[in-house]
């Protein structure tokens, strides 16, 4: 059974930092493109970042470039999202995903307060 388990969310003041983790089981995460989407109430889920399965090449949505960093620990089958200089608009539920298997985690809440 494949599972993606996110952790690291929480409440943080604007300008602060959080690091999200996505631990994978049942799959070899190194063979998957993995990344993060986020969702806020009333809005569609939006892409945040991904890391390729060849060369670990990252990609980011424009609004988080320079503030967020995605990385992979192949020994732990885990992907991380380091989020710095958090802004109010970064608030949302962050979901980890893996493709091409199309696996999703349950999400972790990130709340940025003023």
Total beta strands: 11
- Overall 3D form: globular
Helix content estimate: under 10%
> How far apart, in Å, are the first and last alpha carbons?
40 Å
Order of helices and strands: EEEEEEEEEEE
Main sheet record: 7 strands, mixed
Concise structural overview:
This protein has 114 residues and is mainly beta. The protein is built from no helices and eleven strands.
Please give a structural write-up.
With 114 residues, the protein is mainly beta. It is built from no helices and 11 strands. It has strands spanning 3-7, 10-13, 18-25, 33-39, 46-51, 58-60, 68-73, 78-83, 92-99, 103-104, 108-113. The strands form 2 sheets. Strands 2, 4, 5, 6, 9, 10 and 11 form a 7-stranded mixed β-sheet that branches. A hairpin with a 6-residue loop joins strand 5 (46-51) and strand 6. It is globular and about 40 Å long.
What are the defining features of this structure?
mainly beta; 7-stranded mixed sheet; 0% helix; globular
Show the helix and strand layout.
Elements lengths: L2 E5 L2 E4 L4 E8 L7 E7 L6 E6 L6 E3 L7 E6 L4 E6 L8 E8 L3 E2 L3 E6 L1
Parallel strand pairs: 2-11
Antiparallel strand pairs: 1-3, 3-8, 4-5, 4-9, 5-6, 7-8, 9-10, 9-11
């Amino acid at each position: 059974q494949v599972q993606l388990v996110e952790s690291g969310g929480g409440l943080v003041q604007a300008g602060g930092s959080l690091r999200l983790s996505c631990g994978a089981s049942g799959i070899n995460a190194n063979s998957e493109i993995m990344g993060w989407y986020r969702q806020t109430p009333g809005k569609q889920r939006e892409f945040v970042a991904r890391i390729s399965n060849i060369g670990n090449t990252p990609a980011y949505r424009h609004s988080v470039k320079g503030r967020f960093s995605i990385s992979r620990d192949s020994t732990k089958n885990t992907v991380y999202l380091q989020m710095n200089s958090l802004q109010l608009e970064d608030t949302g539920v962050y979901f980890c995903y893996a493709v091409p298997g199309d696996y999703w985690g349950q999400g972790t809440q990130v709340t940025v307060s003023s």
